[in-house]
Amino acid sequence: MKSLCVYCGSSIGASPVYAKAARSLAKELVENNIALVYGGGKVGLMGVIADEFLDLGGEVTGVIPKALLDKEVGHTGLTRQHIVKDMHERKAMMAELSDGFIALPGGIGTLEELFEALTWSQLGLHEKPVGLLNVDGFYDGLIGFIHQLVNQRFLKPEQASLLLHDSDASSLLARFKSYVPSYHPKWADQEKAKTLVP
């Protein structure tokens, strides 16, 4: 595992615990000689993790669309910064450059990126680990909703287990290192569903 993509907010969030977690994750990755791939911004948690990485001597690659260069205040001190044409190219490049995906706290954009990576895993389009750093219970509701998808038979338990989560950066990284990819057909109850269609 040479590099991990970290999705996180371009805002700092309501609690200082989120920035603390971003710094903790940066420290853990640098100590394990794992490079950072992220959205290329200098503000919010994006800026926190990038700056901490750089301060610790780690390698940081940013990928940012030209339209967001000013809005997210593109970081100018990275190891390398790729400026791309749109969000689709951004996500594709981040995925290509990474051996796994971790979501720190963030907003709709963070969730959208996370679920795209998770969907690709579910469909067998990649075999990379996808996880949540569940800082101070931030993602408890989301984890609960994943269980709801399983309970309502829109998702198989094996597919739900593709989303790793832990409140501790070191423990989450250990789970990433021991991750064994597995593919299960997407449809939870394909044969049963046929009998339920009116």
UniProtKB/TrEMBL annotation:
Family to which this protein belongs: Belongs to the LOG family.
EC number(s) on file: 3.2.2.n1
Keywords: Cytokinin biosynthesis, Hydrolase
The organism's taxonomic lineage, starting at the top: Bacteria, Pseudomonadati, Pseudomonadota, Betaproteobacteria, Burkholderiales
Catalysed transformations (reactions): AMP + H2O = D-ribose 5-phosphate + adenine
PANTHER family: LOG FAMILY PROTEIN YJL055W
Pfam families with a match to the protein in the record: Lysine_decarbox
Name of the protein described by the UniProt record: Cytokinin riboside 5'-monophosphate phosphoribohydrolase
Keyword Hydrolase set for record: yes
